[in-house]
Design goal:
By secondary structure, the chain is mainly alpha-helical. Helices cover 83% and strands 0% of the residues.
Length: 190
């Protein structure tokens, strides 16, 4: 009788420890998944801010540069492509287009002294540059969170539980081939 009681107690402790272990594994996976989601949402907040600033910049520039329709169109199209981007790869392509359009815009602004002297134009350009830097920083944080998540779901014993619980590998943000190319500084001044 005593042996049966001890065996029952040991079995109960083993079951409780097993359940606690599975709950702990699940909670760690949820935590990592949520951190990756939060990092993505932080990027989205900055992308929305950038879109708002680009809209303001375009509106301010339209007042002075009515005949520069091609430049404003490319900037507007870049902004719209960034709004439609949903995957990290699409966002990378859209970011490249926004950077190119902003580069052309800055070069063209030099031809318009009255535009250059407008303080709000300078503020918009500065704000967009600041946001671009923040987006780059947040993408780094996103990649760190996703790498940590992807690593954990591939490690033992998490790999056993992760697939059964529906956790799948996430895509990292990667720069496009155009973003990795060397910059021709001489062409920018030509």
């Amino acid at each position: 009788m005593v042996i049966a009681l001890i065996a029952g107690f040991v079995a109960l402790v083993v079951v409780i420890l097993s359940v606690a272990y599975v709950v702990n594994v699940y909670n760690q996976l949820v935590n990592l998944d949520n951190r990756a989601d939060q990092a993505k949402q932080n990027i989205d907040v900055l992308l929305k801010q950038r879109q708002d600033e680009l809209t303001k910049l375009i509106d301010a520039a339209k007042e002075v540069m009515d005949h520069e329709e091609e430049l404003l169109t490319s900037l507007t199209e870049a902004r719209e492509q960034a709004e439609r981007a949903s995957t990290p790869q699409e966002q990378a392509n859209a970011d490249q287009q926004v950077r190119q359009a902003m580069s052309s815009f800055r070069a063209r602004v030099e031809d318009y002294p009255e535009l250059r002297s407008q303080e709000n134009m300078l503020q918009f350009q500065e704000r967009i540059s600041d946001i671009e830097n923040q987006i780059a920083d947040r993408r780094e944080v996103f990649n760190e969170a996703v790498t940590q998540y992807n690593t954990r779901i591939e490690q033992f014993p998490y790999v056993i539980f992760a697939r059964q619980m529906g956790y799948q590998e996430r895509e990292l943000f990667e720069a496009t081939a155009a973003e990795k190319e060397d910059v021709d500084v001489g062409a920018a001044f030509a």
